[in-house]
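Hi R.,

Here's the chain you asked about this morning:
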Amino acid sequence: MRSRHAAFPLFAVLSWGVMFPVLASALTRVDALNLTTARYVLATAVLLALLLAREGLAALRADGRGGEVALLGVVGFAGFNVLTNLALGHAAPQQIALFVATTPLVTQLVRWARDGVRPRPALLGLSLVALVGVGLVITRGRPDGLGQFGVGGLLMIGAVLSWAIYTHGASRFPEHSALRYTTLTAVAGTLAMLAASAVADLTGLQHAPAVAALVAVAPQLAYAVLVAAVLAVLAWNTGVRRLGAADAALFMNLVPMTTFVVQILRGYRPGEVELVGAALTIAALVAANLATRTRKAPATPAPAAVVDHPAVVEPVAVVAR
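And here is the predicted structure, written out as tokens:
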């Protein structure tokens, strides 16, 4: 029975692992900000339709917390996605995937800073091990390769921190369904991205994509919206409900592995040091997730959101608790 339930988060993380090479190929035709905006305009439209169909117009109200919803949406959706797409212009997809896989660990640090909940020493130690693994992948074990960390790495640190703050913020809305919280924050984040794209286009920082360019990336955009931002989200939320957040989080370690496989199939040949670094990061993340698993499940599952140990890559995918 549990193996059948595991198919849901497995589908989600495999979809997200494929997403990074897909987006990287689209960025050769459309700039990062416009691509992100186009993607989430479409994804938010789908989410709005689902929310209205399931919960009605009343679910669109922010209940006096519009400012908080807007801030989390801007940080989570606009912050994470724009920074990630910008980073893909400076770093390889497999490097980006490894950074994103550290989100559960960063979320623990955010929780420590905001709530005073100190992570276990073992978790902090494993966080450092995971970062060492990322460093090996980026530098390929050469000290002079630290320069390759550069802009892409800094952007991804910002992206992961943004998503950790957003995910932690979900705990402040236990009365909202996952779909409602996701949709309301997605609307705020998408509006912010639309405004930023308009300003960037008008000031010449970027150029609005031509119709031909959008048509050229239509397959990538369709995958990123329908598969990675809708179907994968629904599968992830279903898996979390059936397996629990802690068990489902273990699947997130497959994201960088999936991205590596896709890149290898596309002709990339990783070196030995890079493979060691990837294995070290994934092993540390698995160990960290095992260390934070709940030892004994409660007799009656609580209906409120649980975001203590989330491991969500896709910003539309707020864990349904």
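One quick note: The chain has a mean pLDDT of 79.

Cheers,
M.
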